[in-house]
Each structure stands twice: as C-alpha cells, then as structure tokens.
Write a structure and sequence with these properties.
- By secondary structure, this protein is α+β, with helices and mostly antiparallel strands.
- Helices cover 52% and strands 11% of the residues.
- It has 33 helices and 18 strands.
- Strands 11-12-18-14-15 form a 5-stranded antiparallel β-sheet, with no helix packed on it.
C-alpha cells in the first residue's frame, strides 16, 4: 500500500476541523439544544403527521395519505426507503451534526474536494470552500426549510469533481467518486437541483468532446464517457424505488400534462408557464450577485430597521415604514442571490486571464443559469426550454437556476487566484485585463453609487401601477402621492448606495491585495490568509441578515408547531374515522395546519394531483357546494366576528360511500369537469366514456336499495360491507389514482372506475360482500428489491475503487 504522509494529510485534517468549528460557531444556538425555525419544515410536520403516526403505530409505510387535497401518494411527502443503503453513507458524511449544521458542513467538504481535484492549493481550497458555502442563497433556503434542496446542492460539487477526474484519465478513482456522489445526489431527493447539475455536466462533456477531437483523443473520450454512463446507471439503482414511483406519479400530478384544453397557450406538457415562471429573477436584479441590496434584499417592512427612515419627512414616516424593503418584481423573496463582491471581481478577472476549456464551461453554464432565471422577463428564451428541452417544464421557480452560477462563479474565482499564485507575473503581463475586470466591477459600483437613478428603478412595476391608479382615482392627492414616492425612492436609494459602497471597497481592497502580491510585496500564505478573512467578513455579514440567532427557538416549539384551536378541538370529538375539513380561516390550498389535525380539502404541496387542481380551479374556488359535498366535507372552519375560528357542521356531506340511481357518460375531460357544474351527486354520477364497458357489461339497477358502509379506515386500506338485492353503482368519496389502488370484493380483484372527475366508482354485485381498497403499488415492491441489491453492489464497487487507488503502482 502507498505510504500516507501526515504532512500531506495535515491541510485536509485542518480543513475538516475548520469547517466543523466554523459551522457550529455560525449556528451556535444548536449547541444549547435549540432548533432552526424553518417555514417549510413547519408545513412538513403538518402534512406528514398522518404518515408518521401510521408508521409509528404499525411499522408499515402507508405510501398514501388522506391528510390533504382529498388524498394523494406519500412519495414526495415523507417516505422511508429502507433498502437504499446509500442514505446510511450520507449520515456518515454529515457526521451526526445537528441541522442545519450538517448541510453547511457538506457544502464545505463538497467544494473543497472539487477544488483539490482541479489542482488548487489545499489552503486556498479552504478559502474557496468558504466562498462557495457562504453564498447567501444557501443560508436563505436553510432559513426557509428547503432542506432537500440544500442537501442536493451540497453534493453537486463532488459529483463534478468525480466527472472531471475521470476525464483526467483517473478512470478508477474518478468513477468511484462519481458513483458515490451521484447516488448521494439522487438520494437527496431534489430532482430540480439534480436536473440543473446535468446542465453543467453536459457542458463539461461538450468541452471534453471538442478537446478530444482537436487532440485526436476520441478513444479516451468515449472510454471516460462510457464509464460515466455506466456509473450513472449504477448510481440510480439504490434510489430506484423513489425514481420509479415519482416518475409514475408525476404524469398524474400538476407536473404532468393536463387533459383539459382550456387556456391552451399557457400550457406545456408539464407545469403551466405562468405558474412555473412566477418567481422570475429581474434582469436588473441579477446585480445582486455583486451588490446584495441591489433590489432591497428580502421582502419586509422598511420600518423594521429604524435607520432606513432617517431623513424622511415626519408626516410620511409611518406610511414609508410600512412599504416593502424589496422593490424587485418577484411576488416576494426571502433574500438575494449574493456570491460576494470579491468573488465576482475574481470571476470577471478569470474570464479575461484564464485560458482553459473549463473556463468556457463555467461561462456557458453561468450565462445559461442567468438567462433561465429571468423566466418571463425573457420569455422567448424560456419558451425554448419549456417546449423543447426534456423535463424542463416539470419544475417551477425558475430563479432557482442561479444555483448553477453560485457554483461556477466561486469555482472560476479560485482557479483565477491559483493561476496568479502559480504565475505572479500574469497580472503584470495582463494589466489591461486586470483594469477591465476592476472597471467592470468596482468601477461600475462607483458609477452606480454616484448616479443610482440613472441606471435603476427604485419603485417596482406593481407599486408604480398601484400608485398611478391612485393618482387617476384621486387627482386631488396626486401631488402628495408624488412627494411620497420621492421619499420612498430616496430611502431605497440610500439602502442601495450603502451596499454599493460596501461592494466597491471590498473590490478595491482585494484588487490592491493582488497588486501587492504581483509586485512581490506579500507572500502566498499572506495572500491566501488575507483573502480568506476578507471573503468571510464579506459573506458572513450578509448571511447573518437572513439566518441569525433570532431564527432559532426551543426544540419543543419547533417539534410541535401547531396548537389546536377551538374549532379543531370540536371536530376532533367526532369519532367518524374518515371525513374532510375545509378550513376557510387560512389560505386553504397553501396550508399545512389543518392537515396536522384533520383530513383536509386543502393542503400544502408543490405536486398535487392534476385533476384535483382542476377541481380546485373550476369548482372549489367557485364555491360549488355539490363538489364539496361529494368530497365528504363534513366540517367548515369559519371565523366569528372576533376572527376566532369555529366549526360548522355540514349536514349535506354525502359520507364515505353512496349508491346512485343515474349515471351519465361524457366524451372527455372538458365535458367531465363541466358536468360537475349542474348535477346532483347524491343521485347521479358522471363517468368518462372510457369506462363505459365496465357499466355495460353487467345489469345495473337504477333504484338504489340496500346498504354500503365503511367498516375500517387506514391511509392505505379501506374496508366496506355491502348488502344489496341488485347490482348497483356506488360512488366512494376517495380520490381516484389507478397506479396502486386495487379493489377487492370478497378477496377477489374487482374493477373500478373514475367517477365525478376525481372520485372512485364501482359496480357493487348483489348480495352481502366485503369490499376492500388497498394501496399496493407494484413498483414499490419491485423497486425495493432492486434497491437493496444495487446498494450492496455500489458499496462494494466504491470500496474497490478506493482500495485500487491506494495500491502500489506495480500491483495496479
């Protein structure tokens, strides 16, 4: 075995210690047992409660939940895939650190590995890891509770490291690293981030192909590429259950194509374009990469910081204090994407002085991420991707593409510093390029500081529309409105100028640092140390604006975020095991609190069933009581005159299941959903003609007579008993989903059909019977078997790859 030198290991050991200590210092409240208040995790606790309670009680995975949107698969809510052994490796990498320290640490380590693979000095790689990890967006998403996103982002860099190593002809080690980290990336379960990672890898592949053609090394290219394809397939194996189930479900979710033909110009084969591009980064807003408050930072009141109101006329202070701190055109934002003024300067400098093919990969990926982040602000470009790039239209929040830029910009910045360290004379030989980079960053910052109104708007488009309408409606107040707008603009200009000046000074200092190094005034260790301190001071201060000690609270409050209201307590006294609640005191279709206590008509999830979303838009939002009754909405939660919630019993709710006397066939989805506008669900069922053969094949009585009742309830199993003198049609107030729900009559598989656009219908045979609906998707069983075998194979291959690398050269 090759001898391992402690001297060579020292910087790596030091790096790990520094990363752990820095992480724990930043999130120090976790050391006293506190937890981060994360909005999305609060919602997660609400929507996952039924699943977790069932798992704790039975030890089974329910795979389905009725806690929200009438019922939906649990695949993207709270699933445990026990056959995926890669998740155990993930726990090792996270060192048992408390959340969110574990994800911060993963970011450090992942980027550090990437820089080492690219030949960057280990001590400079530590600085680079800080530059990348402290990008503001990564802390903003932790504050919001986007944990799976943060998890997936952390594994992007080491995946790229493995791919680059493979193309460097380190086939075995590169393949082992790629195999391990691609599998971990997929296991993090944020497909959107993984999808964006593929863009970077495609650019790397294209650059390597061009390089191989030029240098007549196609054999190497195809060998490395083929090996990486095999690795990718193997990496999928441990995660196959989740992938198969998600792929199957996505076709029926809002990420799939709608069967409705209305509003066709806004539709794609995935998400509707206006929904997908709702959070589009503004073109001017892209300046936040260098100036954090280019658009005011996060949404919130200006009055939250009293210093913002300095100089505002006394008669306008109150109203100015209530205006938004953010003046961009996104609906709202938790904060900007800031990669650092110093890092952005070094990135621009690198574009001018670096001459490797990786530079062009980084530039292309960065520009693509920026253009895609503009969304509806450059719709012609977005349209190309929505309609022609496979999979792109499955994802929303296009501003998220900036994670590509957040990886690429500090990567080139560190390669630039390494180039200067290796060749100090390069800045003397390329003075012009140095001054251009300085001018495009520090120089422009100075110009923006002097003439902010010349280049930027400080009143958002929506605000301008609102205040223009007010001046039209109240012409007598037009003068006062103009004075108010001028005062608001002045406040925001001051906010902008403060951060502009801050970025300018950081660029000047870092530029001077490089100048002194190039002229032999300081040595490499001093350059790396001072640069590291400057980057940490820069990024730490901005990150603390969005994730600070005030965002932590005692664990008890975080783990039990919802308190039952008077209405909740009243409803919980009902012993009926299966009914729904419509909470109208909250935003019902963006709410998890109701799901914490009840089975909700609403809910909180980014991938609800498409047909349920159609019913929300066409009927529930229009107060169609017939639809609410067929969904067994037994209680409404309303607000009294004091805005306190109370429960109102709905005596017209149709219950768990009922017989109908009439059935109507319709041509297609358009007619099916329209038919719900004027029908009596207690006596009539609407059926798509595709299910006509199920009805025509048996003799059915149109005079309901007999009984059918729910005997027991579980999320994945519903048991009914029936007793009828004739064959009859029953409508079950349960959401139709063909890929997993099986119906049994007296333990024999029995067909059922979709009824009333979203429910289940069945021809019930005469006589006494036990009817059972079980949720038993075959893909889950098959996937788990494949995942276990794949996990064992992956672990053996990765261990073998690293063992081979440690072998003496002769043995290799």
């Amino acid at each position: 075995m090759n001898q391992i030198s402690f001297k060579n290991l020292l910087p790596h050991i030091t790096a790990i210690i520094i990363f752990i200590l820095t992480t724990l210092i930043y999130v120090n409240p976790v050391l006293s047992g506190k937890k981060l208040k994360q909005g999305d995790i609060v919602n997660y606790r609400g929507i996952s409660k039924e699943i977790k309670d069932f798992r704790a009680k039975t030890g089974e995975e329910p795979l389905w939940t009725n806690s929200m949107f009438g019922g939906m698969p649990a695949y993207q809510i709270s699933m445990e895939y026990k056959s995926n052994l890669v998740k155990k490796i993930d726990k090792i990498f996270r060192l048992g650190l408390p959340r969110p320290a574990d994800y911060i640490f993963l970011n450090f380590i992942g980027f550090y590995i990437l820089l080492l693979v690219l030949g960057v000095n280990p001590w400079l790689s530590i600085v680079g890891a800080f530059a990348y990890t402290f990008s503001s967006y990564f802390f903003i998403i932790l504050d919001a509770g986007h944990n799976s996103k943060a998890h997936a982002i952390a594994y992007m860099a080491p995946v790229i490291a493995g791919v680059l190593l493979t193309y460097k002809k380190k086939y075995i080690l590169g393949a082992a690293i790629t195999l391990l980290f691609v599998s971990l990336e997929i296991a993090a379960n944020h497909l959107q981030i993984t999808y964006y990672l593929i863009f970077i890898l495609l650019f790397i592949g294209i650059a390597e192909l061009i390089h191989s053609i030029k240098n007549k090394q196609l054999t190497h290219f195809f060998k490395a590429t083929g090996l990486l394809f095999i690795v990718a397939i193997l990496a999928v194996g441990p995660n196959i259950t989740n992938i198969l189930l998600t792929n199957q479900y996505s076709k029926d979710s809002i990420r799939g194509k709608s069967e409705l033909t209305t509003n066709i110009e806004n539709k794609t084969s995935g998400l509707d374009k206006d929904y997908a591009t709702q959070w589009s980064y503004g073109k001017q807003e892209t300046l936040t990469l260098m100036i954090p408050n280019a658009k005011g930072g996060s949404s919130g009141y200006l009055g939250e910081d009293i210093k913002n109101l300095d100089g505002v006329p006394q008669n306008f202070k109150q109203i100015i204090a209530q205006q938004n701190h953010y003046w961009g055109n996104q609906p709202f934002t938790s904060g900007p994407v800031y990669v650092g003024a110093i890092i952005f300067f070094l990135f621009i400098l690198g574009l001018l002085i670096i001459k490797t093919r990786l530079k062009w990969v980084i530039l292309a990926a960065t520009l693509l991420s920026i253009f895609l982040s503009w969304g509806h602000n450059m719709m012609w470009f977005s349209d190309i991707f929505f309609h022609y790039v496979p999979g792109y239209n499955k994802f929303r929040t296009v501003s998220m593409t900036l994670v590509i830029a957040e990886l690429c910009i500090p990567l080139l910045a560190m390669l630039t510093v390494q180039k200067i360290i290796n060749t100090p004379s390069i800045l003397k030989n390329k003075k012009k390029e140095f001054y251009i980079a300085f001018g495009l960053t520090g120089g422009l910052a100075f110009l923006f500081y002097l003439l902010p109104s010349t280049f930027f708007n400080f009143i958002s488009t929506n605000e301008l529309t609102t205040f223009t309408a007010q001046k039209t409606s109240y012409p007598q107040s037009a003068g006062q409105i103009d004075i108010f707008l001028n005062a608001l603009e002045t406040v925001r200009i001051n906010i902008f100028k403060a951060d502009t000046l801050r970025s300018m000074f950081l660029i000047i200092i870092s530029g001077a640092l490089l100048y002194f190094f190039a002229n032999n005034k300081i040595k490499t260790p001093v350059l790396i140390t001072i640069l590291g301190v400057l980057i940490v001071l820069d990024m730490w201060g901005i990150d603390k604006r969005y994730l600070n000690d005030d965002k932590f609270d005692v664990a008890r409050k975080i783990e039990h975020p919802f308190t039952a209201s008077r209405a909740d307590k009243q409803i919980l006294q009902d012993t009926d095991p299966d009914f729904r609640v419509f909470n109208m005191t909250v935003s019902p279709f963006n709410d998890a609190s109701t799901s914490y206590f009840h089975k909700s008509i609403g809910g909180y999830h980014g991938a609800k069933l498409r047909r349920y979303q159609d019913v929300i838009e066409h009927h529930i939002s229009n107060n169609n009581t017939d639809v609410l009754n067929m969904l067994n909405t037994k209680y409404f939660i309303l607000a009294d005159k004091n805005r306190q919630p109370y429960a109102q019993y709905n005596s017209e709710a149709l219950g768990h299941v009922w017989f109908v006397s009439n059935y109507v066939f319709v041509e297609d989805a358009d007619h099916e959903i329209d038919a719900l506008n004027n029908f009596k669900p207690d006596s009539t069922v609407i059926i798509d003609k595709r299910f006509k053969s199920m009805i025509d094949s048996v003799s059915i009585s149109t005079t309901p007579n007999g009984t059918i009742t729910l005997q027991s309830y579980a999320p994945n199993k519903l048991v009914y008993t029936s007793n009828t003198p004739n064959n009859q049609i029953a409508v079950f107030s349960e959401i139709y989903y063909k890929d997993g729900w099986n119906a049994y009559v007296d333990d024999e598989l029995h067909p059922y059909f979709r009824a009333n656009y979203i429910l289940r219908g069945m021809v019930i045979p005469k006589g006494k019977h036990t009817i059972i609906f079980k949720f038993e998707p075959q893909l889950y069983t098959t996937g788990e078997s494949i995942a276990m075998v794949s996990s064992i194979l992956l672990i053996l291959l990765v261990v073998a790859g690293f063992a081979y690398e440690l072998m003496p050269k002769k043995q290799q």
